[in-house]
Amino acid sequence: MTLNPYLQFRDEAREAIAFYASVFGGEPEISTFGQYGDPGDADPDGVMHAGLRTPAGFTLMAADTPPGMELSSGSQITVSLSGDDDELRTYWERLAEGARVTVPLEKQMWGDEFGQLVDRFGIAWMVNIAGSGDDQPPTE
Questions:
Q1: What is the pLDDT of residues 71-95, one digit of tens each?
Q2: Domains, the chain
Q3: Degrees (nearest 5) of the Cα angle 14, 18, 23?
Q4: What are all long-range contacts of 31-39, with beta carbons under 8 Å and residues at least 24 apart?
Q5: What is the C-alpha to C-alpha distance for residues 80 and 65, in angstroms, rounded to an integer?
Q6: Which residue has the higher pLDDT, 74 or 111?
Q7: What is the pLDDT of residues 8-36, one digit of tens each?
Q8: Bridge partner list, 103
C-alpha cells in the first residue's frame, strides 16, 4: 500500500510537478487528457495525471482540474516532511522560492527546527528537522 499526496491545480500541474522534481529530484511522468481520446472541455495538453517518485522515496501526484469540476480550495491539508536528514533544509530552501513563509525554519522549544510555508502554487508545507537531542529533558 501507498499513501501519498495528490495535488490538484487549475492549469499549473505540469509547472508544479516540474518544480517539485527540481526540489526533490526524480523524473515526472505525465499523461495528458488528449492522450486518452476526446478530452471533452479539458485542454488536450492539460495534465490528467502526473506522478513523481523521488530518490528519497517520496511520491507526489498531481493533476489539472478540468473545466466544470470544482477545484477544492481552502483545504485543511498540509504536506509534512520530517526526519533528521539535513537534506530537509535543502528541500525547505527550494520550496521557499516564491513562497509565503508562515513560520520561519528555526529552532523550536521541543529542540527541532520547524517551519511552515505556502509554496508558489498554493500548497502548504511543514518541515521538521529533528534536533540532536541535546535539548531534551533527562529521562528517569
A1: 765 567 889 999 998 899 999 999 9
A2: 6-64 (3.10.180.10), 79-129 (3.10.180.10)
A3: 145
A4: 33/64, 33/66, 39/66
A5: 23
A6: 111
A7: 998 999 999 999 999 999 999 999 999 98
A8: 116
Dihedral, CA atoms, 103, 106, 107, 110, nearest 10 degrees? 20
Task: Quote the CA–CA distance of 115 and 6 in Å, as a whole number.
Answer: 22
| Among 139, 110, 118, 137, residue whose Cα is nearest residue 128 | 110
**Dist. CA 98–CA 118, nearest whole Å:** 9
Q: How far apart are CA 12 and CA 134, in angstroms?
A: 43
139 pLDDT tier (thresholds 50, 70, 90): very low
Instruction: State how far the Cα of 46 lies from the Cα of 85, in Å rounded to an integer.
Output: 35
How many residues can be counted in the chain? 140
Q: Determine the pLDDT at residue 40.
A: 80
* 70 in Cβ contact with 10 (< 8 Å): no
